[in-house]
Amino acid sequence: MSDESSARRVHATTNRGSFRLLFMTWSVLTALQLFAVMINVLGGQDWAFAEYLNVFMVVLGFAVLGYLVQLRRRDEHLWREDEERRADWDRRGRAL
């Protein structure tokens, strides 16, 4: 990868596969925390430190998911270029 293309990227080490892993991990984490908060709200229990921590994690999860969506929007064309470059390289290698 050239320095020029990595300078244009929002996060230089993130490719399509790592984006999917990060997005799914943070989606599941946020959903579980949201579920825990909803159980506490619907249960009518008193709030302890752990419940406030769950609310903080939900907010953090939505912030990270927003960042990941922005990262995908800005870097997706670069990911396509990388995949096209790899496919071209594979075609040339098989042609030998």
Structural account:
Helix content is about 85%, strand content about 0%. With about 100 residues, it is mainly alpha-helical. It has one domain. Helix 2 runs antiparallel to helix 3. The protein is elongated. The two termini are about 25 Å apart. The relative contact order is 0.14.
Question: What's the number of extended β-strand segments?
Answer: 0
Approximate strand percentage: under 5%
How much is the radius of gyration in Å? 20 Å
Strand/helix succession: HHH
Helix fraction by DSSP (H/I, runs of at least 4): over 70%
Number of domains: 1
The chain-level structural class is mainly alpha
- Number of helices, counting only DSSP H or I runs of 4 residues or more: 3
Layout of strands and helices, then pairs:
Blueprint: H1 3-8, H2 16-43, H3 49-95
Protein name: DUF2530 domain-containing protein
Organism: Arthrobacter echini
Keywords: Membrane, Transmembrane, Transmembrane helix
Short description:
This is DUF2530 domain-containing protein. By secondary structure, the protein is mostly helical.
Question: Main attributes?
Answer:
mainly alpha; 96 residues; single chain; elongated; 3 helices
